[in-house]
Amino acid sequence: KAGVTQTPRYLIKTRGQQVTLSCSPISGHRSVSWYQQTPGQGLQFLFEYFSETQRNKGNFPGRFSGRQFSNSRSEMNVSTLELGDSALYLCASSLVSAVSSSGANVLTFGAGSRLTVL
Amino acid sequence: AQSVTQLGSHVSVSEGALVLLRCNYSSSVPPYLFWYVQYPNQGLQLLLKYTTGATLVKGINGFEAEFKKSETSFHLTKPSAHMSDAAEYFCAVSDRRDDKIIFGKGTRLHILP
C-alpha cells in the first residue's frame, strides 16, 4: 500500500512569506503528526491531529498551525516565515491516536518537505 | 516530563565490528521506547520498539535493544556492522498517559571500510 506522501518535497521562501505543506497518510490511518527536524535541535514535535481534531501540541509559536480534513489528509501552515524556520518538516501517520491507543503509537513517516527560508 | 538523551551525535565503527548506540530516557511512568532509523533523503523508519514483557527486543536488519529500567537506558546494538547501516538513528520515548512521542537528537552512524 502507498506510504505517507508529503508535498512539496523542496521549497524556497523568503522571510515574511507564508507556506503550506501537505501530508497524505497511509490509507486507514487517522492520526497525523508533524515534526520539525533541524541539525541542532533534532526532531521537535509540532502537533498531532486525529479525526480532524488537534490532540497534542508542541511548544511552537502560533505562527505554526495545522488542520486535518475528513479524509485524514493534513496540512500545516507557517506564517510570517523567519530564517530559523528553515528545516525538514516531517509528517507521520498512525492508526490510532493518543487518547484511544494502548500507548505504543508506531509512526510511519513521509520523506519530508525541506523548507529553505532566505 | 519525558526526555531522551543520545550519547554521541556521531559514532564511527569499522565494518564487521559491534555497533552500540546509547540512549537514556527520563519518564515519570513506565515508558514505551522506540528506535527509528533515517537514511539520507528519507523519512524515519521504525527499527524496533519496547512496550511490555521481554526486555530484550529484536528489530529489523539485525538490530536489537535492551530495556534496563534500573539504568533508564535503551541502548541499540548490532553484532556486526554493515556498510548499509550508515544512517542516522533516533531513540524515542512515549509516555503511556498521552502518547506524545519525544525523540532524541539522533546519532549519525558512520561505517568505516
Tell me what you see in this structure:
The complex is a heterodimer of chains A (118) and B (113). By secondary structure, chain A is an all-beta fold. In chain A, 0% of the residues lie in helices and 51% in strands. Chain A has strands at residues 5-7, 10-13, 19-24, 31-38, 42-50, 53-57, 64-68, 74-78, 87-94, 108-109, 113-117. In chain A, strands 2, 4, 5, 6, 9, 10 and 11 form a 7-stranded mixed beta sheet that branches. A 4-stranded antiparallel beta sheet of chain A has the order 1-3-8-7, with no helix packed on it. Chain A starts with a strand and ends with a strand. By secondary structure, chain B is mainly beta. In chain B, 0% of the residues lie in helices and 56% in strands. Chain B is built from no helices and 11 strands. The mean pLDDT of chain B is 91. In chain B, a hairpin with a 4-residue loop joins strand 7 (64-68) and strand 8 (73-78). Chain B is globular. The relative contact order of chain B is 0.34. In chain B, the strands form 2 sheets. In chain B, strands 2, 4, 5, 9, 10 and 11 form a 6-stranded mixed beta sheet that branches. In chain B, strands 1-3-8-7-6 form a 5-stranded antiparallel beta sheet, with no helix packed on it. The termini of chain B are far apart. Classes of the chains: A mainly beta (118), B mainly beta (113). The A-B interface holds A 4, 33, 35, 41-43, 45, 48, 56, 90, 92, 97-98, 101-112 and B 32, 34, 36, 41-46, 49, 51, 90, 94-96, 98-106.
| Low-confidence sequence ranges of chain B | none
Q: How much is the radius of gyration of chain A in Å?
A: 14 Å
Structural class of chain A: mainly beta
How many individual β-strands of chain A?
Answer: 11
Tell me the fraction of residues in β-strands of chain A, as a range.
over 45%
* Whole-angstrom Rg of chain B: 13 Å
Q: How would the global form of chain B be characterised?
A: globular
The greatest interface between two protein chains, and residues involved on each side, is: A-B, 25 and 24 residues
